[in-house]
Amino acid sequence: MAAKWAAVAVSRDGVKIALRAKRVLAEQDVTVFTLSKYAVAGTEAIPGKLADFWGTLMADYDGLICVMASGIVVRGIAPHLTHKAEDPAVLVMDSGGRFVISLLSGHLGGANATAVMLAKRLSATAVITTGTDVKGLMAVDMLAQKLGCALVDFVGAKDVTAAILDDALVAIVDEAGLDFAGIVLPGNLFVAQPGEPLPAHQIRISEKATCAWDAGITGVQLIPKTIVCGVGCRRDAPGARIVEKLETLCAGNGIHPRAIAALATIGLKAEEAGIREAAAHCHAAVKIVPDKMIRLVQNRFDGSDFVEKTTGLRCVSEPAGYAASGFGECVAPVMKGDGVTLSLWRLRRPGRADLK
User: Fold this and answer.
1) Is the dihedral of CA 247, 62, 82, 110 positive or negative?
2) pLDDT tens readout for residues 281-325
3) Helix (H, G, I), strand (E, B), or coil: what is residue 241?
4) How many other CB atoms sit within 10 Å of the CB of residue 238?
5) Where are the alpha helices (DSSP H) in the chain?
6) Max alpha carbon distance in the chain (Å)?
7) Average pLDDT over residues 251-280
8) What's the rounded Cα separation, in Å, for the pair 19 and 241?
9) pTM
10) Other C-beta atoms lying within 10 Å of the C-beta of residue 183
């Protein structure tokens, strides 16, 4: 699914640049907004005042291309900033189309990469100011993004990124066996081998609920998306209840909830709002396992006449999780209660291709 972007212009020349940006960014779903007096074919008029529209833009779009003075953008978006993990990418362009400035969410939001791509296609100059990019290094949040990992410790990420910028040696301790093919690491960042002495700055890739650091270690945890949760539920089970049960199951097995790559269920439950709410809470996908696949593996697990009567299948959670994990290892067998059944499975091949 293409990212949802908005291009916003406040002048006639700016509209021309915004429309050009829309044409060359075929990978994105771009809507061009402008003041009503400059609206032409292919654009939408900003409802009311631009000052009142920034909240909608920041909340509803993955990225913004603002063809206007940077000061207008800074003042407009400032009241709506939340967190670097949630804010959209924001680019600023001049109305002459000469520069593409990455203003906000350069790494996690993809503003830096989009600025470079857009500048190349418009024969413009990309302006990138993040320290690691200027030095040709890699920030922790960018590494997390490239590996498909979750990052929740932004203080640790800041400290380790500072060490990278200072050219300190930083070890990546990969407990998940992820695929680093195609990722070019800077010289001071390396993947540690088992038993190898480690420096004082470390990045640990682990699905564990918590990571303990030895004294004197500056560290940050990246959480790989290595776990699939098989889920069955009664009709209209609340999302909050599913989340509560899932977090309890994860805690009991030492798994971080953000390690959940997907919630797997059957076609009958595909539109259950509670399952989709729980998946969104975990930043996970929803995977629907075909009934014929469930029938192939359900005899491995305990079933019930009640479930078969209501779904046509002997059981849901365990066969769905097992199949969706690529027939992986069971981390937590089925937990039942309050109309919800959950089980945890580790992806059989935990590489980046499996996490999409």
Assistant:
1) positive
2) 999 999 999 999 999 999 999 888 888 888 889 999 999 999 999
3) helix
4) 16
5) 12-24, 50-60, 70-77, 111-122, 131-134, 140-147, 154-165, 239-252, 273-281, 291-297, 305-311, 317-324
6) 69
7) 95
8) 45
9) 0.78
10) 14
Which amino acid is residue 197, in one-letter code? P
- Statement: residue 70 has pLDDT above 90: yes
- Tokens 């670097």: give the residue: 84
Residue 265, amino acid: T
Q: Which of 204, 210, 246 is nearest to 229 (CA)?
A: 246
φ and ψ at residue 185, rounded to 5 degrees: -90, 145
**pLDDT over 70 for what percent of the chain?**
97
- The one-letter amino acid code at 190 reads F
Q: Counting every residue, how long is the chain?
A: 356
What is d(CA 89, CA 202) in angstroms, rounded to the nearest whole number?
28
Residue from 148, 114, 163, 127 nearest 4 by CA: 114
Query: Over 70: is that where the pLDDT of 1 sits?
Result: no
Distance of CA 336 to the CA centre of its chain: 29
Cα(185)–Cα(147) distance, rounded to whole angstroms? 12
- What pLDDT, on the 0 to 100 scale, is given for residue 22? 95
The pair of structure tokens assigned to 249 is: 């199951």
Q: Residue 338 and residue 39: Cα distance in Å, rounded?
A: 54
Q: What is the mean pLDDT of the chain?
A: 92
